[in-house]
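Section: protein folds

Sequence with per-residue tokens
===
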Amino acid sequence: MFAATKPQVALRARARKSDVRARSGGRKAMVTRAAGYDYDLLIIGAGVGGHGAAMHAVSRGLKTAIMEGDVIGGTCVNRGCVPSKALLAASGRVREMRNAEHLKALGITVQPGAVTYDRQGIADHAENLAATIRGNLERSLTGLGVDIITGAAKIEDNHTVSYGAPGTVTGGKVTAKNIIIATGSTPFVPPGIEVDHKTVFTSDAGLKLDWVPEWVAIIGSGYIGLEFSDVYTALGSDVTFIEAMPNIMPGFDKEIAKMAERVLISPRNIDYVTNVLATKVTPGIPGKKPVTIELTDFKTKEVVDTMEVDAVLVATGRSPYTQGLNTEAIGVELQRGFIPVNAKMQVLDKDGKVVEGMWCIGDANGKMMLAHAASAQGISAIENMCGNENELNHLSVPAACFTHPEVSFVGLTEEQAREKGEKEGFEVAVRKTAFKGNSKALAEKEGDGMAKLIYNPKTGEILGMWIFGLHAADLIHEASNAISMGSKLDDLKFTVHAHPTLSEVVESLLRGSDGH
């Protein structure tokens, strides 16, 4: 498709390999330069997963290039994790400073109406943060000698990728001994929903914060929907969740979801409908014409209601971005758009056999659609590529929802653990503790929260941990690391945590005590 030319690399010449190895430290590289190829490794996609894989590849002495058809950083940095945290940080401050009752309990008085916000200023904060992180990632790649190739990728065979601007015939070809596909995902929009990117939009447009609608319907009440509800209600919007499942926050531990509803939903200008699908959504005109939503019963598939709102955010999950890669050239049959892989992240063909030299990480393989999971998978793939057996335990990968307060978890829900125990013949036990028993939480007047530990009482194996409360996202990693390292409760119950800190919430669970 593309004429073969020398790869167009970005910014600066590669650093001398000897310098890179000297800086990287750790074990020596297990792989030498592959003869007959342009690179030891080519990574398709420069998101968080691709970046993590590239950095680790350099530390293992691999001559590495990364190919990107859009901008460095992918979804997470440009249209996801990073800018959303900026919006949540700013809107969270607004919520905090407008909570007169909470401030009064701390001895602080703020005059009514004294706290205002600049919508464009908040939007600029998110955009500027994304630009900063994007620049940091690019500099880290070029600083270690990773070649950045700009262009959309098309796989020619398991060692060759052509590239160029989409729809053109200009570009080039690159060869590599190993190729990692790390193309990520895009927002999924169900059939019947017409997106105009102004009144009906996905998280991509929502993060631009072009306006703050008076009434927003959010289709889907997973972590993306919850975070946006946190932002919008803090800035003055009313929110209605439209959820197809019987309960909001499906996939959450039921007990945690119940408490989160009491704190994050009930006291705020949020309502919800469940067991319904938004089967038809027609855009409106801001300030002139409402968005119309046709609601259909999930079971009967009959239209049951129609809503009119100012805007609709579609938060119904994500789809793998794998179209156009030409995976059929390597005998791969996509599964609902995902690229099948084994536990080592090696790509599998339509017969389930390993495609030599081909790997896939992150959202494109569908194993766990989280940015840090993609990065961890990338590191695992590099280790296997270098002859070091490695299989990522996905049950050790934590996740978080950055609402105020936060939700975090690792491993199984209580319901999943009990189902697993019943099938495999072991007992499941649960420990719980409340934030209202933690001194630091009480000092902050943030006693709403709980944590629960799910474990095997006979072996001491941690099956899961869920936390809802102040800085929950920062507290989950002790359990994550314990699961990753195979630590048992007896190994952890005598660990010491500084007092008074929120980390004592986790300490209480590990020791089986009631808190501090």
Q: What stands out?
A: The chain is about 30% helix and 25% strand.
